[in-house]
Amino acid sequence: TRTRESLTERIEDAVGVRPEIDDYTLNELELTLIAADLGSVTTAEVLQALKDKVDRKQVQSTDEIKGVLKAEILRLLNEAAAKSPVRTVDQPPEVILVVGVNGTGKTTTIGKLSNLLRAQGKQVLLCAADTFRAAAIDQLEVWGERTGVEVIKTKPGGDPSAVLFDALQAAKARAVDYVIVDTAGRLHTKQNLMLELEKMKRTAQKFIPSAPHEVLLVMDATTGQNGLQQAKLFTESAGVTGIVLTKLDGTAKGGVVVAISRELGLPVRYVGVGEKIGDILPFNANDFVESLFA
Ligand code: GDP
After folding, report:
1. Does the annotation flag 249 for ligand binding?
2. Which reaction is the catalytic activity of this chain (predicted)?
């Protein structure tokens, strides 16, 4: 709602005062899209599509402008989704690695996800493979208790791959549907991160050759374009398959959803809209775009 209000009102402000769509109008629109956190690359692409239609006299009114922006944004989101479709897992458990920088809401997201899956009647196991921070293990246990889900852990400083091994062994023995793995959020160096995640992937594949089935990168929506730069580091080294965008409740700049999809070439799978257990929504591109211009 907040994104819609900020975006559509400003589109009307930008366009409403002029009888025709000229360079001034297009500049104002550019500022509007940048202000909504669409980012410069995505904004330029969306505007180019609009300019082409204006040149061909296919767009004349505010409503028509909205129509073009809506179609363009949906196209970008669908393109990103097509690059990384959701995988169907024929042999459970499905293994989900969760990566991201500390403070983005990684642990909270894991808790919310467990709850969501539990509500669908799924058996979930959490794996505390962020062994670097003792607090991360404790925090995950709190979420485990809250959602009635077992947490497999080791002592702080332990080997993340060893605890993943234990978790997968337990998951197989107990017919678990989902194993959600918390990973260390420190961005030491790209090299370290890559090595650690590679080792974890190899460990998972010993149990389940098709694992991991999903690598979710947790990103904080309020960090906008800066978060996007950081995310690129992860996507380059971690084989990310989807994004969870947290704290969307804390910003009116929901355009960052589009920037992420376009610039990382990855779909947003879930959005976080608050601190409570139920404050997570599966992301749907159609619904997002419809609500944006409703
Ligand atoms: P981690 O260090 O990445 O594991 O981050 P945490 O899960 O501990 O979350 C950091 C802070 O962000 C906590 O205070 C959470 O309550 C808060 N948080 C996480 N997700 C959301 C969200 O979607 N909206 C809001 N408003 N706060 C969130």
Report:
1. yes
2. GTP + H2O = GDP + phosphate + H(+)
CA distance 248 to 105: 11
For ligand 1, say whether the CB of 138 is within 6 Å of any of its atoms.
no
What is the 3 state secondary structure string of 82-141? HHCCCCCCCCCCEEEEEECCCCCCHHHHHHHHHHHHHHCCCCEEEEEECCCCHHHHHHHH
Mean pLDDT by 10 residues, the chain (294 residues): 73 74 88 88 94 89 88 95 91 94 94 97 96 90 96 92 96 95 78 85 93 95 86 85 94 86 95 96 91 75
CA dist 254 and 2 (Å) reads 8
Identity at 224, one-letter amino acid code:
G
CA of 69 from ligand 1 middle (Å) equals 31
Q: For the whole model, what pTM was predicted?
A: 0.93
Confirm whether residue 101 is marked as ligand binding: yes
Q: Is 107 annotated as a binding residue?
A: yes
Q: How far is the CA of 85 from the centre of ligand 1 (A)?
A: 27
Our mutation pick for probing the ligand 1 site, out of 271, 275, 279, counting the most ligand atoms within 8 A of Cβ, is 275
Count CB-CB contacts under 10 A for residue 110: 29
Q: Is the shortest distance between the CB of 249 and ligand 1 below 6 Å?
A: yes
d(CA 67, CA 59): 9
Residue 53 annotated as lining a ligand binding site: no
> What ipTM describes this predicted complex?
0.99
